[in-house]
């Protein structure tokens, strides 16, 4: 992996773009849409070489954890709770996960965690600042 692949840390939600359009596109129910809006999600990443544990802590105590190794198929869960299999790749220092009608990238840019999800042509961007 490249030198800019240092993902380990804790990141707190700072801002997003296109949230409503995106979550409607992926079919989140409206109660979940309200819960998720400007939600102070804390993302915790533990990276050991190509092995990752990616945990999202939601206010109220709910967590979602995805564990994967770059280049190997893994069982994953989306922010909407859907389960799927994906092989995470590295492209230009970004982690990329793809499955039908959905692409997710994550990168560290300017000390922030920047995640971009694309589904059916709608692009959702979430930025989180490093807190630990």
TrEMBL record:
Recorded hits in SUPFAM superfamilies, A to Z, give: Lipocalins
Sorted alphabetically, the keyword list is: Cytoplasm, Lipid-binding, Transport
Q: Does the keyword Membrane apply?
A: no
Signal sequence annotation = none
- TM ranges are none
Query: Which InterPro entries does the entry link to?
Result: Calycin, Fatty_acid-bd, ILBP
Look up keyword Cytoplasm and say if it applies: yes
- Gene Ontology CC entries for this record: cytoplasm
Q: What is its main location?
A: cytoplasm
* Source superkingdom: Eukaryota
Q: Where in the cell is it found?
A: Cytoplasm
What terms describe the molecular function in GO for this protein? lipid binding
> Cytosolic fatty-acid binding proteins domain location, by residue?
9-26
| Family of this protein | Belongs to the calycin superfamily. Fatty-acid binding protein (FABP) family.
- Spell out the protein name for this chain: FABP6 protein
From what organism does this protein derive? Smithornis capensis
